[in-house]
Amino acid sequence: MYSPAILLDLGAGCDIMAGKKKGEKMDGKYVRAIFPGSFDPITNGHFDVIKRGAKLFDELIIAVGRSPIKNPLFTPAERVEMITELVAGMPGVLVESFDGLTVEYAAKKKADVILRGLRSLTDVQYEFQLAMTNRAVAGIETVFIMTSEQYGFTTSTLIREVAALGGDVSNLIPKAVYKRVRQRLEELKTKK
Predict the structure, then answer these.
(1) Distance separating alpha carbons of residues 32 and 71, to the nearest angstrom
(2) Active-site residue 170, yes or no?
């Protein structure tokens, strides 16, 4: 099993964040990170990573991507709106949507790192490959944060599926998001 300290060392250069306090410059450098994902819907696990990541970086951009292979529950604009409401009052945290490759978006925003959350060993294998590819293709580093154990099993896909079948997911997503999920599922039922 990997320890969180080892996971932070998976990407060369991740040690630039060690011991950094919010607002304290690392070698005088302002550090901007992006946290990309579909966030359809945003989960308590995502929000946990956002809150913890916001303490590490001077600026954290939650980058809501458009996935061509996923059947979305919410539009990117709706996801941005929900996340913006959740992060209101968190200094240095912005929310935007983007199209295309994450590394291209990161370059456009002049991001120093990509923030990723890890839930399980399966995530480590996939995310390690992705981080290595991003570094090889675009020269951008990835910083990993282990999600809190109570959120280690949650995915947006699983939450959508359980909610669509009438299951109670209220403890897995923020309350305001839960209301929107229930409302959207009711709208979809009436359209059928």
Answers:
(1) 30
(2) no
